[in-house]
Each structure stands twice: as structure tokens, then as C-alpha cells.
Amino acid sequence: xxxxxxxxxxxxxxxxxxxxxxxxxxxxxxxxxxxxxxxxxxxxxxxxxxxxxxxxxxxxxxxxxxxxxxxxxxxxxxxxxxxxxxxxxxxxxxxxxxxxxxxxxxxxxxxxxxxxxxxxxxxxxxxxxxxxxxxxxxxxxxxxxxxxxxxxxxxxxxxxxxxxxxxxxxxxxxxxxxxxxxxxxxxxxxxxxxxxxxxxxxxxxxxxxxxxxxxxxxxxxxxxxxxxxxxxxxxxxxxxxxxxxxxxxxxxxxxxxxxxxxxxxxxxxxxxxxxxxxxxxxxxxxxxxxxxxxxxxxxxxxxxxxxxxxxxxxxxxxxxxxxxxxxxxxxxxxxxxxxxxxxxxxxxxxxxxxxxxxxxxxx
Length: 363
Known about the structure:
This protein is mainly beta. It is about 5% helix and about 40% strand.
């Protein structure tokens, strides 16, 4: 990469790969328009690129042709990502795959769960969700079953950042765990999970565990599932006890519900102005108090894929386009890491999982 001007900023002493990329971005800004792009060559250059630190594929080759529904988490030993992969969604050979990032490099995908039953029958796996509690093992939630209307919840634990895992544990009857998006940990340690069911209409409910998945409780469904179908809530924090959940819908809009008591009860869902093409979303409350959402801002198709920010969870402003070319770019997962950067993973054309790193201070 050629620089068009002399660089005036000293190179950072930190070896963190994304800190190096932030520094490089400053250099390119100082160098002028002749400098090359930071993002991968096959990715469209977003119009608001200042906040985009870099993008990459988590893997280039894998022993499965299709993938979907990624999840990402930060551990003490680096980032860990997972997704489901196989010949195609719903096929019995679909398993949960995982990669770990160390020193800026992702490991090759490894299989960490399958749907083989004790009698030998095999079902597909679905929607992994990684969660790293403040104190406790890394948790991997996922679903197994013929379809979303009949699947059940599963859980594995790891004490070494995903290198090895306990035996799979089936969650109690009626408990599915976080259905797509990460739980949040409440101040007293409770894990609150956004969940949903699809066997009697699309209905959202919330589950919680005070002992990292050993015992559970849940709310009733917050919607009747017939007039408006809602699934896959993502949780945002408004204050100490006030929460906001945004939900995928089958009515062309993202819906919202609020809780004043840490998730024990919820308001009637209401539509926001944000469009939704019946596709997954994910959000996170940043440490500066703003809320960040990754979604498809359209009522048809799964492109573009966009990042939006909000001060109150009600009014949103699009700030960055991650993808805008033909194809499917969907099912984002988003976290903020200890260094303040935001990490997004998402399905890239059902062929690979893409990882984008953002600097929220540039929004």
C-alpha cells in the first residue's frame, strides 16, 4: 500500500491488531486520497468509512458449503465466533462450527456440536449463541430439531475459551435459551435471554437463569403471535432496571417492547419506523450510553446491511453501510469489546461469515 504523504503519527506500541489498523487509518487520512482502502478488496467501500476499522472473512475454506447465524463473544483469551454450517439450512448434516481469534488470526473452523441423537437419528442444529458471563465458563447455547417450530434448547460449557467443551446438556422442557441474540447479564449476575417460539404463531418471551443455565424461569409470551408475528429479540439497557427489546417481525417493521423491572414484565410491542424484511437483527448498548443496531433497512431482501445509532432506542440514525451489493447479508451479531471497538459478524451470501470492526467514536 503506497502512502502519498509523509506520516506524522508515531506507530502505536500496542500489538493489538485492530489498534494497528486504527493507526493505519490515521496514516491514510494524513496521506490523502492516493492511499489504498483499508477494507477487503471485494467489499464495497462504505460512504461513511471513517468508523470502519477493517473487515475480513473468518474463514476462506470450510468442510461445508453453506453457513448462517453467527455469534461472537470476547473472552480473556481473545474473540470466539460460532455459526451453523452444512449443505443447507434445515438439512440433518448442519452442525455448529467455531473459530477462535488469537494474535489477529482466526483458527480454522472446528465442529463443536451436532444433532445426532442417542438412537442414531440426526437432526439439524440452529442458531448458536455464545455468552461469556463475568464469572463462570464460556457458554454455548444452540438449538437442535427438525424445524424452528419443533426444536429444543441445548447448552455446552468451556473453561478454556472454547478449546474444549463439556458434554451437551438439553435445557429443561419449555426453555429454549437465547434464541438468536446474546443474553445480557444483570447487575446481580442473572443472565436475561431474549427468546421466542414458532409453533403457535411467532411469539416472544424472555427467560432468565441465576446459576448460569442450571435452573430457569421465564415470562409468558408478550404477544399473541397471530396478528403480528415477532421473534428473536435483542436486548438494550436504558437504565439500571429499564430495558428495551427490539424484535424481528413479519409486518415490515422492527418492533419494540420495554421493561421497567429488569425483564420480569414487558410492555405491549409497538412498531418503530425502522423497516424489517423479516430478517434477524442485533444490537448493543455502548459504554457511552448510545445504542447501536445492525439491520437490513428494507422491507424486501437482505441487502443492504446497515449500522444505526440511537440515544433513546426510539429514534435511530443510519451511520454506516456494511454491505450494499446484490446478495444476502444478514443475521448480524454485535458486541463491544474492552478496548471500546465494536465487532460485527454476519452471514455473507450464505457462503462465509464476515467480521467487521468499527470505531464507535467516529459515528
